[in-house]
Amino acid sequence: MQTTQTIRLSLPSKGRLESNALEFLAAAGLRVLKPNPRQYQANLPALPELGVIFQRPADIVVSVRQGSVDFGITGLDVIEEKRGDNGDILVLHDALGFGHCALTLAVPESWQSVTDVASLKDYAATLDRPLRVATKFPHLTKRFLDGQDISHVLIAAEGTLETAPTIGYADLISDLVSSGQTLQDNRLRSLRDGVIQPSQAALIANRKALQTRPEALEMARRLLEYIEAHLRAKDNLLVIANMRGESPEAIAHEIFTQTDVGGLQGPTISPVIVRDGGAWYSVSVVVRRDRLPQAITELRQIGGSGIIVSPVTYIFEEEPPRYKAMLEALSSKTG
Amino acid sequence: MQTTQTIRLSLPSKGRLESNALEFLAAAGLRVLKPNPRQYQANLPALPELGVIFQRPADIVVSVRQGSVDFGITGLDVIEEKRGDNGDILVLHDALGFGHCALTLAVPESWQSVTDVASLKDYAATLDRPLRVATKFPHLTKRFLDGQDISHVLIAAEGTLETAPTIGYADLISDLVSSGQTLQDNRLRSLRDGVIQPSQAALIANRKALQTRPEALEMARRLLEYIEAHLRAKDNLLVIANMRGESPEAIAHEIFTQTDVGGLQGPTISPVIVRDGGAWYSVSVVVRRDRLPQAITELRQIGGSGIIVSPVTYIFEEEPPRYKAMLEALSSKTG
Amino acid sequence: MQTTQTIRLSLPSKGRLESNALEFLAAAGLRVLKPNPRQYQANLPALPELGVIFQRPADIVVSVRQGSVDFGITGLDVIEEKRGDNGDILVLHDALGFGHCALTLAVPESWQSVTDVASLKDYAATLDRPLRVATKFPHLTKRFLDGQDISHVLIAAEGTLETAPTIGYADLISDLVSSGQTLQDNRLRSLRDGVIQPSQAALIANRKALQTRPEALEMARRLLEYIEAHLRAKDNLLVIANMRGESPEAIAHEIFTQTDVGGLQGPTISPVIVRDGGAWYSVSVVVRRDRLPQAITELRQIGGSGIIVSPVTYIFEEEPPRYKAMLEALSSKTG
Amino acid sequence: MQTTQTIRLSLPSKGRLESNALEFLAAAGLRVLKPNPRQYQANLPALPELGVIFQRPADIVVSVRQGSVDFGITGLDVIEEKRGDNGDILVLHDALGFGHCALTLAVPESWQSVTDVASLKDYAATLDRPLRVATKFPHLTKRFLDGQDISHVLIAAEGTLETAPTIGYADLISDLVSSGQTLQDNRLRSLRDGVIQPSQAALIANRKALQTRPEALEMARRLLEYIEAHLRAKDNLLVIANMRGESPEAIAHEIFTQTDVGGLQGPTISPVIVRDGGAWYSVSVVVRRDRLPQAITELRQIGGSGIIVSPVTYIFEEEPPRYKAMLEALSSKTG
Amino acid sequence: MQTTQTIRLSLPSKGRLESNALEFLAAAGLRVLKPNPRQYQANLPALPELGVIFQRPADIVVSVRQGSVDFGITGLDVIEEKRGDNGDILVLHDALGFGHCALTLAVPESWQSVTDVASLKDYAATLDRPLRVATKFPHLTKRFLDGQDISHVLIAAEGTLETAPTIGYADLISDLVSSGQTLQDNRLRSLRDGVIQPSQAALIANRKALQTRPEALEMARRLLEYIEAHLRAKDNLLVIANMRGESPEAIAHEIFTQTDVGGLQGPTISPVIVRDGGAWYSVSVVVRRDRLPQAITELRQIGGSGIIVSPVTYIFEEEPPRYKAMLEALSSKTG
Amino acid sequence: MQTTQTIRLSLPSKGRLESNALEFLAAAGLRVLKPNPRQYQANLPALPELGVIFQRPADIVVSVRQGSVDFGITGLDVIEEKRGDNGDILVLHDALGFGHCALTLAVPESWQSVTDVASLKDYAATLDRPLRVATKFPHLTKRFLDGQDISHVLIAAEGTLETAPTIGYADLISDLVSSGQTLQDNRLRSLRDGVIQPSQAALIANRKALQTRPEALEMARRLLEYIEAHLRAKDNLLVIANMRGESPEAIAHEIFTQTDVGGLQGPTISPVIVRDGGAWYSVSVVVRRDRLPQAITELRQIGGSGIIVSPVTYIFEEEPPRYKAMLEALSSKTG
User: Fold this and answer.
1) For a FRET experiment, which of A158, A305, E245, F187 has its CA 20 to 30 Å from that of E184?
2) Which range has the worst mean pLDDT, B24-28, C289-293, E122-126?
3) Residue D3 has pLDDT above 60, yes or no
């Protein structure tokens, strides 16, 4: 039944990254329909020509690089670890706003003198052997430590790295940190400047697919358009206030003197009829969600009342900047 | 405390159909308040005169037919199996948009020559005994197979029909299929034209209740009004764009040339004041959710910018067609 | 990382009250970010200077009274039981709309003659010992029974009070009742007029903090503003209809004759261009959610069509009445 | 991989009956190995020629009657409801000791005058219509009520029968009752002599299979042997005591005077060497678990000390009486 | 149905203490049968005259003290906190072997100079106010701190005490500690000698019930007998070895020279017939579970082979010492 | 508190392998005490000098090879994949009886001509590129395919390999298979002779630790002794029967003629006193659990009656063969 699906998007196959990715897409109007919880394939009814598959985060990068999958959503951590250097991975959007964490160096709390990379280097110099660093990210960790000229050996591990220093099979770790609670539970501490790779979910694509298949390029445009319009909408609210004024122009002038209610391109102003007469206008303006209290204060100061705030689902701009960036990246190199 | 509740609505008492029904009603503004998860009675605060009870899907049909319950939401599969022929069940709305499945004939994958009903009939003719068909829906299955003139005996079963062919107590099954995964897991395959009854959740009522009790008829009108307005809203979005133009009429003319932004009865156009002057207008239009990308493209082509998309909770039409259909059905036959 | 947090809000640390409080705040635009489910501290990104901690409901009252915490959300039941009489607890908002229950006297179902407080008193008079009342709320229960002049001894208990009469270590109980199901399961019945303290979630503050720390007072204002604007929005919807009319004033006149579509300060009326010409206007009005059916009927009666209903996130009034009440309370007594 | 499995045992496919059946078999040394929780087929390593399948309780009876399955473990309730009258269902063991419940008539608590079947009949006589009885067991219920000469109509239902009297689509119910808690929660009461069919798990077989296939008959013998030896062991304990005495015979004589330590066929008595010399003997005896305190008292009275109690896994008797009963049943009728 | 139950045992009503108590009793042959997980009453089939009820741990102490319940199993922590001084609580067994924890003083990790009670006292002396101690155990905590002459105020709390020092409403806490993990998670540390009350589950009884009701006294004897016999069995194993020797006496002599295989009162020695002839004996001996490796070594050293180890369910001694202690306590004071 | 723990055992940190390992050790008398479910360290009270840590299966092999951990229990699959060739991993026990699976080659079901390794090789020869094989076990897979001279490239993957052929990034997979259900669900089929590595849980040790630290060697001996004695006990039962006979020797002679009741070194025979007199003997014999029915039959044939079967906890042999094997392996090579 999926014969029309000629383009593929790979999503994380389990845990919080999966549920966050599904919620993010649903909120952007791209609900994924998984016919069965045990199945690793799904549909996306709003984009019927897109087949969805589920893979482990790192496998997504491998599949997109290889070209068996056209698009993927996964963490920047594994993207940077696994993207390789042939340029086949194109990062279309690097800030989807979920899955935040950072690949970070962490040392035992008891190493009181080691608080940053410099003091780690000093400490390493006092040892008669290289530092032993346990990690699931050997590529990024090696590049970082080499860049700092710190002598080390990497100890590859599958999981529960946090216990490595206690057990003694490593001196310190290079691991993903989000809230820091797990580090603290295991009496570890991240180095002040020890972030090797900040990470959040990103949208990637296979370069050759975009260069050679027009329908994949069009899909990239639509995915970016939906995602950008959704992310912009998420951070804004539509505010509607009633204001008394001599004319729409007079009210607009008042509004333009304010910082937070300038809006996207200018307020919409319509006349309102009130019970007790008088020249009233309804003013609609889009404001940033985190500036709402300030906007309400400004509107009140210039006479706004009966202020209603509504949600917005999408805000479409002229042309998404990331789409332009993608086109440039595509033309800059012929795969 | 429920003494004022003179009308009854029965909902499915467990599983996905229950949670989907509760979500559907809540989204339609009719949140059900269950004082206790173990209880089989509930209130619907927006319609205080309506008492809600929970029953198994098939028991709902029996209760509505019998008249001990006035309204019910359950699947078309059990409605058709159990409605009987006295006309006491009235289907007010047959497409609530959830609980999709289909009563379908399925045969072992190994029956390579049997792919549709015709080849099933051929196969049956080669046997020296009738086909044995396991099902939980004897009425519909018999009617279908008799209609196709296929000799068979029905084997009634409570559940896990899918194992019947393997175990050997039936040759094939007539069972509800949604994603087809369970069939596949059990190495069964549905016949290409083997759908006996397509199904989704529906709203039914007891005919006599509507004919004899005006408050039940009024409740039918309100339930249909809420449900229709909600279903219409779910499929549409409110799009607001700014457009430069000589006059509202000129803009409207531009819009009328487009396919997807025609809207319900025509756009709302208001003047907008912009920082840099010029004759700008705000255009509001309702568009179908699945045509949003096309609508955005159209608006951009005629100069739209700063496009905001907002959700809608209800869209009320003049008079719901299904309400009219119900009135006709009621007058067509005096119970 | 929380060094800038100088003000503290305490929330319930478990159960339904916790999840309801978190949902309420999120819906009001004040999403709490708990870095870890096991942690008892959290952030509130929209109000970065506010540190959130989690405590048991009664401990919240103690901490706010003591001043180690500035604000708290907890039930009126424990607020009244634990607030003491020094006036240090200020109730900023006493109806947050969740956590409804009531501290109530309940007797065994078998006490057929005891149905209200008066008959309880009669019954008590027939005993040669005081009534034994099991409760977790000794202060409120004693005050109530003393006020009724009923001779009693209180039996303090930790939990599962409902079994006390069966086991025999108390005659009746004074306990929190929400749906009444637990009482019924244990064959108890509440007295008709036996409500000692009705309860729902409330916002409290430490009086001295508001009096001496301006940033705490400003935080009180912002919390109240968000909460009030959210609660008002929750109960209203934005209704937009198209109406044919001679002029905006004529339409407004029509609307003012109606009961439910009067709106906050008057409708917003804009001209609409329709395909078939004619003088049409778009009318926007805010109506109460529970009056929606009536409002739709009214709009239709005066010619409204193509009615769209949208959600609202906040409705800000001139100045929240509860904020004014708080200022009065603060000045009325110098802690 | 199951090609050698020529005999089939069907077990309940879900809920408590499934887990109890699996625990029972495991405790009897017949652990079922389910390769996958989603699968409906399993192995029983101790009896490799036995294939295990999982079905709904009532479907088990149908399959065994039909002969597609040789053996089944399910409740006597559905066995009696569905066994039919052709004698093809043979009950090999009717008291496996789990799954206890009873098909019982229950009426609303408010029917104060109706406490037994006789008063139900009186009540029915006062009505001008037959009693409406909701049930999932029409065959047994009808037979019982007809036997009592009570006029009634049956209302078939799928589930949650307990709400039928409240909702009003039945007057009373005939349903499975175990602890009675669900009845009480729904304000129903069972009739004192209203048990239609007491039930617990039972082992059934297809008569023809036992008559015509020697390997099925041998399997019946082994299943019964394991089950009987396990059930007997479960109720007994092995008690070993040291006793001083002149001779084994003297001690045995003492023991034979006691009630509870007579044992299976007589005690085992061995000499024991003690540090301080003296003629001591070790006495082993099997006693019933529920008579253990009495047995300990008896042993002490005749000088027993250092009493050790050990578990037993099986107790094999000469020849299980139920096996004999089965052979008789088989010969009594030629299927 | 519980009319014959004239004696009452109260068990903890939730959490790990409940499940541990139920497991303990079941292992001791006293399985509790809870007809329904939501119910607070249960039966104990092995002791049919004993009714079981479930209460919060502290409520158990209150009920036993009061006499509405005869026996209780709960933690020593709440027993000591709530037993009062009238001697009505009799502790029959103070070491049931589960529910281990200790009421302990804990201070912030950052108080580096405070490591024991003496240094806490020094620290307190440097403050110009009493120490603030948060606790759920005011009675025991006050007695302990008064005994150490440390000036303090107690801050009563319901829960999550561990956050009190961070939040600032207490300086230190007196709380139950089991693994210490929760303290560590909250950056607290227990004082080296800060244990106020070590605790584990204990069996208590109402003194007057035992003094005045012979059936309660007999129940006390049976509970103690079962519990003691079970606890002793849990710590021992039955070891059976074959040994070659000239006579039973010679073998016994060998065994008596060993430390760990001395056994309860001496080994049981029986002749064994072996295939290859020779004088062999089977030796049975009870050894402590934690000395099993040593016992095996000893047996091998004196020629033991073919060593089998079996579980024991009970070991009954002449007369349980705790039962004697109870009788003495009862006679020492006339309630 | 773990200062005396100088030896380390690493166990799997999650999933079924963890729970199975904990159950296995508990059944062998080596219960692991995890103070906290979130903690990765634990104690083993029966062996107080052994510290337990939890790691991912493959990390266990790395840690034991490296020497930071002395002993580990994990699957043979990861042991063989990761053990390296320096001989530092010593497999003490390779059949702990749980965690069964096999690293196996599996191809799409649709490859009808490919059923074994030979036909896979034929198929590979028809391609103009090497076979692409997805696996988490590159070392073992490469060795196997190279050994078969099959041209291939390996595609490393993190998980959900089963979808690789469908998605198209590999042609076939080399993955762990236990029941085969997951393969079947994904329409894959294992090759008939495609098992690369059979696997179950095994006990490994670090060779150098055993060679240089006597306490580690002694711990190896004790772990093996407990494990072997437990595994042997698990497969046997103690059978006790009463038999009439002229003398113990006569009975023994009868028994020696039988196949299954020969027992470990010969039966224990004691005289039994019966009520009705006569020369009776009690015969104890250890028989294999899976031969129990045969043993019962044999005992009955030679006159056994009143047969009791008891569980055994351990069976200790002279000297465990695996311990001898270990000593040999240690001396064969000086690490």
Assistant:
1) A158
2) C289-293
3) no
Helix (H, G, I), strand (E, B) or coil at D318: coil
CA-closest candidate to residue F102, choices F198, F193, F200, F183: F198
Of F331 and A60, the one with more pLDDT:
A60
Q: What token pair was written down for C279?
A: 């003088």
Smallest Cα distance from B229 to chain C, Å: 9
Helix or strand (DSSP H, E) at F176: strand F172-177
What is the amino acid identity at position F131? Answer: L
Residue among D35, D233, D262 whose CB faces F181 most closely: D35
Place of tokens 């329904």: E36
Strands of A188-199's sheet in order across: A152-156, A131-135, A172-177, A101-108, A188-199
Tokens describing residue A310: 């509504």
Cβ-contact D198, D174 below 8 angstroms? no
* Pairwise CA distance, residues F322 & F304, whole Å: 37
Vertex D108: Cα angle to D103 and D110 (nearest 5): 150
- How far from B225 is each of B230, B316, C260, F31, F114, CA to CA, in Å? 8, 8, 18, 65, 61
Structure tokens at C107: 């007797």
Among residues C14, C187, C11, C182, the alpha carbon closest in space to that of C101 is found at C182
**Amino acid in the structure at residue C264:** L
Model confidence pLDDT, tens digit, residues A266-317: 678 877 777 667 788 888 888 988 888 888 988 988 888 889 999 999 999 7
CA distance B56 to chain D (A): 6
Cβ within 8 Å, pair E39-D181: yes
**B286–chain C Cβ distance below 8 A for any pair:** yes
Q: Which of A180, A273, A308 sits opposite C286 (nearest CB)?
A: A308
| Overall residue count recorded for chain B in this entry | 335
Task: Choose among E236, E208, E205: nearest CA to E222.
Answer: E205
In this predicted structure, the answer to whether residue F1 has a pLDDT above a threshold of 50 is no
Q: Which chain E residue is nearest to residue C163, measuring alpha carbons?
A: E40
SS3 labels along chain B: CCCCCCEEEEEECCHHHHHHHHHHHHHCCCCCECCCCCCCEEECCCCCCEEEEEECHHHHHHHHHHCCCCEEEEEHHHHHHHCCCCCCEEEEECCCCCCCEEEEEEEECCCCCCCCHHHHHHHHHCCCCCEEEEECCHHHHHHHHHHCCCCEEEEECCCCHHHHHHHCCCCEEEEEECCCHHHHHCCEEEEEEEEEEEECEEEEEEHHHHHHCHHHHHHHHHHHHHHHHHHHHHCEEEEEEEEECCCHHHHHHHHHCCCCCCCCCCCEEEEECCCCCCCEEEEEEEEEHHHHHHHHHHHHHCCCEEEEEECCCEEECCCCHHHHHHHHHHHHCCC
D144, pLDDT greater than 60: yes
Q: Which helix (H) or strand (E) holds C215?
A: helix C214-234
CA dihedral over F88, F93, F98, F104, signed as positive or negative: positive
Interface touch E55/C163, C-beta < 8 Å: yes
Rg (CA), chain F: 26
Judged against a pLDDT cut of 50, whether residue C294 lies above it is answered with yes
Cα(A105)–Cα(B298) distance, integer angstroms: 51
CB-facing half-sphere around the CA of A115: CA atoms within 13 A: 2
C-beta of residue E217 within 8 angstroms of C-beta of residue E210: yes
Q: Which residues of chain E have pLDDT under 70?
A: 1-4, 36-38, 262-266, 275-276, 333-335
Predicted local distance difference test score (pLDDT) of residue B2: 41
- Res D22 pLDDT > 80: yes
Any chain E CB within 8 A of the CB of D157? no
Q: What is the mean pLDDT of residues B121-126?
A: 95
Query: If residue D153 lies in a helix (H) or strand (E), which one and from where to where?
Result: strand D152-156
Average pLDDT over residues A53-68: 93
User: pTM of the full predicted structure?
Assistant: 0.87
Q: What is the ipTM of this complex?
A: 0.83
